[in-house]
Write a structure and sequence with these properties.
2 domains, mainly alpha, Arc Repressor Mutant, subunit A, 4 strands, single chain, 4-stranded antiparallel sheet
């Protein structure tokens, strides 16, 4: 009779995976934080740009909760920042079930922010030296992989600062362009102002903090386009007015010239005969006749 030797592998506990092995390797290679960097610096970065790495508000809260359990010496070389508080106690502090805490931890693990140092029965416990405060042994949530995220967190924060500055600059440009548009509308002919104002209201909505830089730049483009359209319209109107004034001046000048010509007389040399009166002429004739008689 043939008998098969069956090997029963242990079941239960945490499953091994490439990601799990990767985070354990990061934990083994942990040599402390960079010089002049503390775990509180990492916490600040997590709170400012953690969302850009896929962290939710609840995940950030849990990570902050765990970070506050650690001490400076836990983040030095030859140490590990392991939080060994029981899962039950953590769940109680958050007012949720243990399963929900495990889900949050799993997502943080997938991001690369933590791993686990498990005991044989997967209970979380540990002990610190009463004098130095150093961890003597601990099983629980290992935060050392978070140190490897520091360069990425810092990069995201610097990018966010640049983006925030560009966001504020774009917002200021929109505000200034809006003031200019409103002023230009008042220069339009009365019959065109209402239509222009109605169009302006379609882009003059409130700017909210949640709006992206891309959407803000698109909104600025619409404002710039309307401003240019209004300026062009007013320039055309000004040119038309100039042409009208110029033509009116030409016609008025011609009329004045024609009138002056109509009422002018041609000057001829005078022999002063036209300046003598009738009596003077008769006297001159009688004197001439008397002289001839002599």
């Amino acid at each position: 009779m043939h008998h098969e030797n069956l090997v029963h592998l242990p079941t239960g506990g945490r499953r091994s995976s490439p990601k799990f092995r990767e985070t354990l390797a990061l934990s083994d290679e942990f040599q402390g934080l960079p010089e002049n960097v503390t775990h509180f610096d990492i916490l600040k970065l997590v709170k400012r740009v953690g969302r850009e790495l896929g962290m939710t508000e609840r995940m950030i809260q849990l990570l902050e909760y765990y970070l506050l359990f650690t001490r400076d010496q836990d983040w030095s070389a030859n140490a590990r920042p392991i939080v060994y508080q029981s899962l039950y106690k953590t769940a109680r502090d958050f007012g949720v079930g243990e399963r929900q805490i495990q889900k949050l931890e799993q997502t943080l693990f997938e991001i690369g922010a933590l791993t686990w140092q498990d005991s044989g029965n997967h209970k979380r416990y540990g002990m610190r030296d009463e004098d130095s405060g150093d961890i003597l042994f601990a099983y629980g949530v290992d935060l050392s992989p978070l140190a490897s995220l520091y360069p990425l967190l810092l990069q995201k924060y610097e990018e966010k600062q640049i983006r925030d500055a560009a966001w504020m600059d774009t917002k200021r440009q929109i505000s200034g362009t809006r003031a200019r548009i409103r002023a230009l509308i008042t220069e339009l002919p009365a019959e065109e102002q209402e239509k222009a104002h109605t169009h302006y209201l379609t882009i003059a909505y409130s700017i909210r903090a949640h709006m992206s830089l891309e959407s803000l730049r698109e909104l600025l483009g619409k404002h710039m386009e309307m401003r240019e359209t209004l300026q062009q319209r007013l320039s055309e109107s000004a040119r038309a007015e100039d042409n009208h004034v110029q033509k009116t001046y030409i016609y008025t000048s011609k009329d004045a010239s024609l009138g002056a010509h109509k009422y002018s007389t041609k000057n001829t040399p005078s022999d002063k005969s036209d300046t003598c009166s009738h009596e003077d002429i008769s006297f001159q004739e009688s004197v001439a006749a008397g002289l001839e008689g002599k």
